[in-house]
Amino acid sequence: MILGYRIIHQKICWLLFLSCILPVRANAWQEGYNFRKKITIPKTKVIATNDLTDFVFLLELQDTTLRFISGQCQSNRVSGYSRPDICFSTANGTELRLSAQVEQYNPNTGRLLCWVSLPMLSALGTQSPATSLYIYYGSSMVADPYSISAVTTWHGAVAIWHMDPEGDSGSVRNGADQDPSAKAIGFHLTTANYVEGKIGKAVHLQGSPSRMTGLKDTSTRFAISGWIKIDQRGKEQVIVSNRSENGGYELCVGSGGDIQIRIYNYGFRYELISTTILTEATWYFVGVSLQDKVLALSVNGIEEGSTRHVDLKIAGGGIISIGSSVNSDRYFTGMLDELRIRHDAKNMGHLSVEYANQNNTLAFYSLGNEETSAMAYSKGPIFTGTVDDNWLNPANWSILEVPSAAGTINIAKNKIARLSGVARSTQQLLLEENAVLHVQSDLTAHCLVTLKAGARIIIDGDRVLQLDGNIQNAGIIATEDGRLLFAGDRAQQISGAGYVRVANFSVQKNTANLVIQLLQSIYVIHSLTLDWGIVETHDNLTLGLSNDGITAQYFQTAGQVQAALIGSVAIEKYIKGGFIYPGTGRGWRLLSSPVYQIRSASLPQFDLHELQNAMFITGKEGANNGFDNSPLDGNTIYTHVENLYGALTDRYQPIQNMDQKIPLGDGVFVFSRGSRLIPDAFTREIVSPPFINPDGYVVTYRGNVWTTDLIKTLYNSHKGELGDGFNLLGNPYPFSIKWGALITSGLSPFIWLYDPINQSYDVTDDPNATINPGTGFFVKVNPEVNSGSLVFKGYQSTAIASRLSVQPAMQALSVTIIKDDFMQRYKIVLTPDGTDGGKRASAEKIGTGIVSIAGISPERKKLSIDRRGSLAQPIDILLSVQGQLSGKYFLRFDGLETFQPATRITLEDRFLKQRIPFSGTVQSYPFDIDKSKSETEGDNRFLLHIDGSAAAHQDDKNITVYPNPFTDVFFVKTKAALPENMNIRIRDMLGNLVLTRKWKNTEKNGVVTISGMSLNKGIYFLELIDSATDIIFKFAKVIKQ
């Protein structure tokens, strides 16, 4: 009655056979198994005059050591699969592996029904010592229940039917045959007919037409045994028969309730009838046999009749019928269990002991204490990769099926496995030497994960590998995009000689006080997220760099109640370099530190030695002050002191020595010469000019992270200088922050960042502006106050504050000068609260750059952001434009769509003496700078004209459109001669391009004919563009009616 595999809450049953016939030395331990217990069968249970050979012992066991509890990593002794990882051996003298067949195993309860073949069972009437055997468990070795060794458990039996259905077919496989077709086929039977029986499952036959048929049996010898329980008497009922035309047998229940065995031989019939009368709903163990002209019958291990005759024989039978005669009549009503047909019979003493064993299994033996192997072995099925690398291919597994969720997984040495499909989970996970696991679907390992030398786990795509237990890693865990998640309800540690390099690392323990110890290197590429739990770094955590040089971000639940990061962290920052000429990687940077090393008066401070590990830092008196020696002892690192005199750049102050500490949240101004680690760096960067244009390199900060609020008090010394009010700060956190999320008081709405490519300060008022870890920036205290403040709000600094989430509607135009990789932006903002001139509503420009642009206020101040009032009157703004090289430049206009459609925006190029109107969303104007001609750059070449008044809606006085309004066709006439080749563009009120034409003016008569038939009724703007220069030279408004 083998129980079939069932889903959760049902018993998991299999036929499992584990056998080995090779002897090993006395008291040896069965290799591959971690635990064992001794089973002893007292001789008082074996009532026989002689020791019994080839006795198949039924072991019924419910033991917590065989129980598998998901997530209970330390207490589980077994792998947790429906096929238990067990085997048996003798315990008397020389230890032999024993054949065994599992009929039922439930890993959730630890209940086991198993048949063990004993070479000899010591009987009460002999001098032999009591029989002992070991049950071994906890291994990676499980076997095919229908292997050659498995079916020989029954020593050549014709059929062993445990009455366990095969799937939903209602049929039962023969436990003594490898051939899957050698089964008892059920007719009018379903899985509902298979119920709990005497030993595991039994088939409940309910009379006509339910029956079964088996293989053909033509032998002239037989031995049949089984358990029966009738539902009713009063009719003859066939239990099993192989009647043929001339021979065969029938085992029946007579109408009076007795057991009858009949044999047939060409018209002769011989029979025996039991003296026992069966009672309904009661189990009976029945045995009949024909051997050496002796016909015998027993009930419950007691012989009830036998006959011997020289002519007692049987002719060959046919197909075996179970539950009815071969003619499909005399149907059986009741249960059948453990039906066996053999060709060799056991003596009555043997049958008597079988009955005693099977009738009360738990009383038949005693169980010893657990013993543990001196050597630890892995448990669970092995991915052998026999066919390919597909996890989902059963042929790739040692158990010849894809492992279920509960249990342990082993990847064999040098094998590659790819896990795909739905999310899966396992208990323990072991990768042998040089094994590779590609995680292509989410995978959870609840218990120990072990990677041996050279092994790799690769998390592909955006998949998640969740680990709830300890990790012993002598290999590599890696991903470019996926996530490594530490979770579960236990403390964890990761250790070993290997390392971890993952895109995303998350901690989400079930409770906040659980500790994760990082005892090996973990390198994070994109993000570290702490939701619940405490991470102790032990100096093994690095927030590294992505392929594009962005530092990995650290996110933590607000506050330190739910999560905490304890210990030193390494945070990498990429210093860009290798810029194209005239730029150079050798130049200034605004930096800060995302970690701190000490706390003074409870305030965190950082030192500068981490910078010196990456670059040369020189200064006054060289090595005497901890600096690197240099020929000039020029200063490398400066702080900024607002209280000094002069412009912003005049208020930098060099550090005095390398032991100087900087308050966390302050910035420093650093001259970067490049990495000190490149070959001959000192000569190439400090000693022998011309110095190199260094490539980018990495600075690694090491220290503790600060994640809570940090308040900075800032000052304006009112010295009447351009540098008044500027204060140098730095992002104090290991994550990017938003300018609009910082809490400010008494400060202007701007921040100034340094662009090392253009060698210039850029200013922005965008609340979404991002300040990356390790980045310095300037803010300015308003001129009407002496001091202000800025509060870094920890993780609240990553999102825009509600006060800035809704911005008033603005008309904003950005004009960006571009040459190759160099660019700088000027921005004009029109708001009702704006003011003309360089007051606090506007941001003054600081310095120049390789390319430079600024707006010039009426007070002749150069501004980077120019806030003005509404367009009640036209605005004219001189643009100061500069470039270090001669050549082609561009002015790019962004934000045109923020203006009213009728607003006229025109760029006047005074050098080329032309006016260019703009509309739409983005426009670009190309121009040249000639360094030999000062008039091609400077403060007087470009004038930006913005006119929102009614006058701006009139047509260009040099152009006439008629008829206007028009119906289908209109004409354009100009006072000046038109170029021969022109592009014509027509835009709607939103600036969208709705019509374009190329026009060739062969007559050059100053008149253009345009078809507007495809246009809808409305107002449009006409642009005439010279094809040779791509410059708009005429502009007009037209109306279609």
From TrEMBL:
Pfam families to which the protein is assigned, alphabetical: Laminin_G_3, Por_Secre_tail
GO BP terms in the entry: carbohydrate metabolic process
Secretion system C-terminal sorting domain ranges (all copies): 961-1032
Example of a GO MF term: hydrolase activity, hydrolyzing O-glycosyl compounds
Domain of life of the source: Bacteria
UniProt cross-references to SUPFAM superfamilies, sorted A to Z: Concanavalin A-like lectins/glucanases
Protein name: Putative secreted protein (Por secretion system target)
Organism lineage string: Bacteria, Pseudomonadati, Bacteroidota, Sphingobacteriia, Sphingobacteriales
